[in-house]
Design goal:
Shape: flat
Largest sheet: none
Order of helices and strands: HHHHHHH
Distance between the termini: 98 Å
Mean pLDDT: 81
Radius of gyration: 41 Å
Low-confidence stretches: none
């Protein structure tokens, strides 16, 4: 049987060696970190003396720099286009004339302070416009029953007939029957 104390001594000495290596790595790491902080401080001082980073994101007047492609039209041209559009020329016609896309024309006009066609009509009525008699237009599918039929159904229901039996008799769904009755002014059965 091998002797145990010799094995334990070997493991203990290996662990001590590992601990020394780890301590030296930690010390090296701390030294490198200090060196990097020193380099960063010197670089910051250097850039401050030069007036900031080489590629600053702000212009001299403090406004952010424009990103992307340069504007197609100058500010004076944009102001002139705005006057024309506010005078009655359509932005679509101007875009065609200048051979630019409509988004480019709108962006140019917005840059000149144009707010769009707010406050004035667009030349066509709103989609959900009222009918000529002043009543709201009905949307969706046409009614299955006339007003007279609906009022007759209401009388039958108020007389004691059930909505389900009336719907079955007329071969319509129960929701259709309830909607027809509501259109005739029926409020539903009064609960006791």
């Amino acid at each position: 049987m091998p002797r145990m104390p010799d094995r334990m001594h070997a493991i203990t000495s290996a662990l001590q060696d590992l601990e020394q290596v780890m301590r030296s790595l930690v010390n090296e790491h701390a030294e490198m970190r200090e060196q990097l902080h020193g380099i960063a401080r010197r670089a910051g001082q250097f850039l401050d003396r030069r007036g900031g980073a080489a590629r600053s994101s702000a212009r001299r007047d403090g406004a952010p720099r424009k990103r992307g492609r340069a504007f197609k039209f100058t500010d004076d041209q944009a102001a002139d286009f705005r006057r024309q559009v506010e005078g009655g020329t359509s932005a679509v016609a101007m875009a065609r004339e200048l051979k630019v896309s409509l988004p480019t024309m709108y962006n140019t006009l917005k840059r000149a302070g144009w707010r769009g066609g707010r406050g004035r009509g667009r030349g066509r009525p709103a989609r959900a416009a009222r009918a000529r008699d002043g009543a709201p237009r009905k949307r969706g599918r046409a009614f299955k029953f006339t007003e007279e039929q609906a009022s007759e159904f209401r009388k039958q229901i108020e007389g004691g007939k059930s909505a389900a039996s009336l719907a079955k008799e007329l071969k319509v769904s129960l929701p259709t029957m309830y909607n027809t009755l509501k259109r005739a002014g029926w409020k539903g059965r009064k609960r006791a």
